[in-house]
Amino acid sequence: MQRVSFQLRIRPELVDEYVARHTPVWPEMLAEIAAAGRRNYSLFLGEAGTLYGYYETEDDEAAQAYLAQSEIAARWEAEMAPFFADLEGRPDQAATLLTEVFNLEDQLAASGAAKR
Predict the structure, then answer these.
(1) pLDDT range class, residue 93, cuts 50, 70, 90
(2) What CATH number has the domain spanning 2-111?
(3) From which domain of life does this come (predicted)?
(4) Catalytic residue of the set 12, 17, 19, 22
(5) In the annotation, is 22 catalytic?
(6) Is the model's pLDDT at 88 over the cut of 90?
(7) Closest by alpha carbon to 73, among 25, 18, 33?
(8) pLDDT of 39-60, one tens digit each?
(9) Rounded CA gap, 70 and 105, in Å?
């Protein structure tokens, strides 16, 4: 399982509307995300409109390709694009990926330590 995290920046004046648009997300878009193979997907809002995302997938390249070809995802991303600052391209395809530096389960498994 791959763990993927990314960062985007929402225009500060549009943060409230962005949050409202995700409460809830279109059911057909939720289905496309799941069909792409993304699981345990979360978005976190930080200071000054910084958005952090996280999901797990078996094959991120395949998930990206699936969503890149999806008409539903294209419509959703076109509606979301104006919310983001300093972004060229679709938000789902152009987000800045973050490097994982620590994972508890991986280190516990590597050390042979039992989970408590």
Answers:
(1) confident
(2) 3.30.70.100
(3) Bacteria
(4) 22
(5) yes
(6) no
(7) 33
(8) 999 999 999 999 999 999 999 9
(9) 33
